Structure formats: C-alpha cells, structure tokens
Amino acid sequence: MAPRILTLANQKGGVGKTTTAINLATALAAIGERVLIVDLDPQGNASTGLGISRLGRDVSSYDLLMGDARVAEAAVMTSVPNVAIVPSTLDLLGVELTIAQQADRAFRLRDAFKAMHELTINGQHVSYVLIDCPPSLNLLTINALVAADAVLVPLQCEFFALEGMSQLLQTIEQIRSTLNPRLSIQGVVMTMFDRRNNLSEQVLQDVRSEMGSLVYDTVIPRNVRLSEAPSYGKPALLYDLKCAGSQAYLRLATEVIRRERQLVAA
After folding, report:
1. What percentage of the chain carries pLDDT values higher than 90?
2. Would the pTM count as exceeding 0.90?
3. For residue 147, what pLDDT is reported?
4. Among 38, 39, 167, 223, whose Cα sits 20 to 30 Å from the Cα of 107?
C-alpha cells in the first residue's frame, strides 16, 4: 500500500513547522507507523534536529529533485526507531534556478516518490511521509504540495496568525485545480500556545471561528523542552517524553491518524 504523504506548509517562518515535522514523525512511529521525513528546507533544521550531521548528508533532497538519486539512496535512518529522513543541504537554494525552465519543474518530487516502494524501514514499507517545507511559497513548496495527499498547516498563536493564511489557502486551491486534484487539507495545528496569555486564547478562538473543524483539537503549548531538544539532535519525545509538548504531539498523532482514515474513506 502506498504511504500517505503529508506536507507541512506555511510561508511564515517561526511557526513550528520543523518542530511539528520531527515530533509528529516520532509520535507516529511510537504508535506503530513507519515514517520518512523529507527535509525540503535549505536551512536543514529537521535534519539537524534529528542528529544528522552536515558531513552525513552525502545524498540529499537536492539529489532527489535533480533526479540524481532515488528515495532509497537518499534516505538515512535516524536514532528514532522507525523514522528515516532525506536530509537537506544548502544546494537546495539553487534548485529554482536549475529547473525553473523545465516543463516538469513542479512534478520533480512526485516523480521521485514513484520509487518509494524501494525504501523499507525494518523490512516494511513506509506508511507516512512528512515533507518539511521552507518558509515561502516557492518552487520547493509547490513540489511538496503537488506530491502530497494532504497539507498540515502549523499556525502560531500570535496576533497576525491568520495573515498570509488566505494566500496559502489560495495556493492550495490553485494546485488542487491545476496540478494535484487529490490534495486536501489535513488540518491546522495551533502552536506555541501560552495559557497565561489572554492573546493566545483570543487567537485560538478567532482561528477556530474562521477555520472551523479544520483546526485540530490538540493545541501545542509553548514549551521549553520543545525548544531545547533540537540542540541535542533529538525530538522532544526522546529528550523528555513527559513534558507537555511531547504529550501534545502524541495526542496530535492520534488525531492525524483518525483524520487520515476519514479522508481515505471519503
């Protein structure tokens, strides 16, 4: 069975995309899924946050997009059981210039995923692919949306949370109508929620009234352990399983799987 491909996208930076990619992958793996993360951000924070040193990135997502490597060649196992990653390098900064004139420029990642069956984790096929996008709606993000089954949008609990959201929704709609008709929105996850802050509560209510049932019940709190973990090259769930952030990502993983079943059934 083909894996479900989820793209984590938001053109705003600092909203918790990478933190969500790493910890959601770990939480999904903890409940029995086999997960591949594809790091499409030239900054490579997902790769670093999973302990993949810059020297250990001989083959990267750049090679995947260029057609120079297959998924099974580019993926490296992480220290997290059942989680592999296709790491990123700064070479990705040159992708747009290199393929901008090519007719298949938006389909590079989708085409690369056709060989996904060659990749196994502990002898079994991958069940989920999470794509971590750069903070912009560029050709890398377009590739991720064209290759995906669904989009997961991390949204920070801050005053301008919904600003730019309409642009992202518009892009998703355009891609659905022209390049990838199966694309749906998996959900919106509110991140960096601060219980002591009235503004966080207000933003959460505003987003729920605007986006309705698209917003997950699970809210990711602002949590010191979540921000400390990447500097140790670990997801928060391995760094401190009992912290509020880790527990929230475990709840989010069960919600994601429940929604996936509904989306597939629909």
Report:
1. 86
2. yes
3. 98
4. 167
